[in-house]
Each structure stands twice: as C-alpha cells, then as structure tokens.
Amino acid sequence: MALTLLQFLNGLSSIILVVIFTFVGIVIAFKYRKTKDRTYIFFGASWIGVVEAYYAVSISFIVSFFNGVGLTPEIYFLVGVTLYPLSTLIWLTAFTDIKLKSKQRIIQLIFVVIGVIFEIIFFYLFFTAPSLLGTLYSPVDSKFGIVILIYILFSLCVIFVTGMIFSILSIKSDNREHRLRGIFLSITLIIFVFGSIFDALELSIIVLTVVRILLIFSALTFYIAFILPNWAKKLFLKQK
C-alpha cells in the first residue's frame, strides 16, 4: 500500500514529534539529579506519555515500509492508548506534590479507579469487539472509538485544568523566574491541548503542517517552563 503525500507527512512529522517530546521529557526528568525534586521526574515522564498516540502512528509508519500495511488495528490501538491512564496519574502525582498534597492519596485513588475501569473496558473490547476500539484507515490514519475518545478528552481536560492552576499560581509569584515559568506553561497547555484536538480532525497538508509545528513549539515552551535555560532568562528577563 503506497502512502499518499499527506499520509507520508503525517508519519514523518509524528516521528519528529515523538523524538522531540521524548527528548524534552528526559531532559526535564534528569533535572531531578540536580534538584532532588521528584516532580521533575513525574512531569518529564508524563510529557513523554501525552504523545502516546503518536508512538502508534510512528511505529505503524515505519512498519509499513516493510509490510506495506503497518500495524494491525488491534496492535495500533494497544500501543497508542493503553498507557494514557498511567501518564495521567503521573501528571496528577506531580501536580498534587505541589498543590493539594494533603489530598494526594485520595486523588490518586480516584484516578487509579477510573484508569482501571478504562483498561478493563479497553481489553474487553480488544478481545471481544476490537472494531469498537476504533478504525484504522491507513498505516497512519485512525479514528478512535467512543470509549477511547472520551478517555483521551478526559485526560486532556485533567492535564489542562491542573496545569493551568499550577501556571496561574506561578504567575502570581513575586519571583520573576517563577512568573516566567508560569507564562510558558500556560502557553504550552493552550497550544498542546487545542493542537491535539485539531490534530484529531481530517486535515489538509497545510493545516497538518501548521498543527504539528505548533505541537513541536509546545514542547519548546514546556522545556523553557521547567528548565528555564540561561538564554531564556537573558531574552525574557533581561538578565546578563
């Protein structure tokens, strides 16, 4: 099966997206070695997890060069979906480390239960009615079933709301660096969440390119928010 130009662009840009998000996530997680603050590990790991769906696209795109069809629908959705509950839980653990620490256990328990329910439904459909998980139109084009779609939207909402709370608290800080971190985190969340929603639609080559560039840009702003490199301080805080 020959890929169209749009499908090729989808697969190639997905690989680029995955590489960049994974690199940023690892860099942030490794900041724990310097700060001994475990939230860097959690935020870094969850940042890798939020693009799980693109891992499925990337792998299927590569496999298609060998077998012509990419991954089977079942494996595609297995790779692209099943770890979302874990990445959401990791994100919430990082958030509750910073805010609502006293409520952390109950919040974690609630989302563990929700995640387990989702996984039970997913694997039930996986073994009994895999077509309900979604439809794979090509090695890189898919449409999620209602169960997966609801959970991913729910996960995005949780990340967006909690992340915005964290960024607003940072923006209100008297510390200029904390304020800058908060601004870049809010930019990240807005671009990533709305970019992800648009990316789920049927897009033209131009729109797909713009959306993927915006998603890659969100990785850069996330990096700035958590690493705050010297060049960013010099540029935005006018520090020497």
Describe what this molecule looks like in 3D.
With 240 residues, the protein is mostly helical. It has a single domain (5-236), classed as Up-down Bundle (Rhopdopsin 7-helix transmembrane proteins), CATH 1.20.1070. Helices cover 78% and strands 2% of the residues. The protein has eleven helices and two strands. It has helices at 5-30, 32-35, 39-49, 52-67, 73-81, 84-98, 104-128, 146-171, 176-199, 205-227, 230-236, and strands at residues 134-136, 142-144. Strands 1-2 form a two-stranded antiparallel sheet. A hairpin with a 5-residue loop joins strand 1 and strand 2 (142-144). Helix 3 (39-49) packs antiparallel against helix 6, helix 4 (52-67) packs antiparallel against helix 5 and helix 6 runs antiparallel to helix 7. It is globular. The mean pLDDT is 94.
Features:
240 residues; mainly alpha; Rhopdopsin 7-helix transmembrane proteins; two-stranded antiparallel sheet; 2 strands; 2% strand
Condensed summary:
This protein has helices at 5-30, 32-35, 39-49, 52-67, 73-81, 84-98, 104-128, 146-171, 176-199, 205-227, 230-236; strands spanning 134-136, 142-144.
| CATH architecture label | Up-down Bundle
| Topology-level CATH name | Rhopdopsin 7-helix transmembrane proteins
Q: SS-based structural class?
A: mainly alpha
- Mean pLDDT, to the nearest integer, reads 94
C-alpha Rg, in Å? Answer: 19 Å
Helical percent range? Answer: over 70%
